[in-house]
Design goal:
Low-confidence stretches: 120-128
CATH class: Alpha Beta
Distance between the termini: 22 Å
Largest sheet: 5 strands, parallel
CATH superfamily: HUPs
CATH architecture: 3-Layer(aba) Sandwich
Amino acid sequence: MFKNILVPTDGSELSESTVARAITFAKEAGARVTFFYAQPDFPMPIYGEGALIDPTTPEQFSRAAQAEAERILSKAREAAALAEVTSSGDTVVSEVPYEAIIESAERNACDLIFMASHGRRGLSGFLLGSETQKVLTHSKIPVLVYR
């Protein structure tokens, strides 16, 4: 049914749980997995009274973000390899993660996006995480929300 599943990840504990479940799902479906990490863009400093100046240059920030992306995606790919599931990784710099997730799914010809609901409970459990909600609202590709 599904051939290539996009799994956005941010390296958090909840995200790692979602990665593990997505790998199991992909194995059962006979699908491959494309893991995706949206790198943050360099924050523009705001100067003014009482503002702190960050000595990090845009180049240093970019290198650190790329290294973090590689670490997170490598960990997910290793987990997939242990389960004998074919996988790849994708990352871009984006200020708007939900758009980057949808664009990655389209760019990688994914036919399902497998995302976490961000683990909210109670009344807030009715509302999904903001990025998940935005992907659900804007994606033309089916989205499976894992809780």
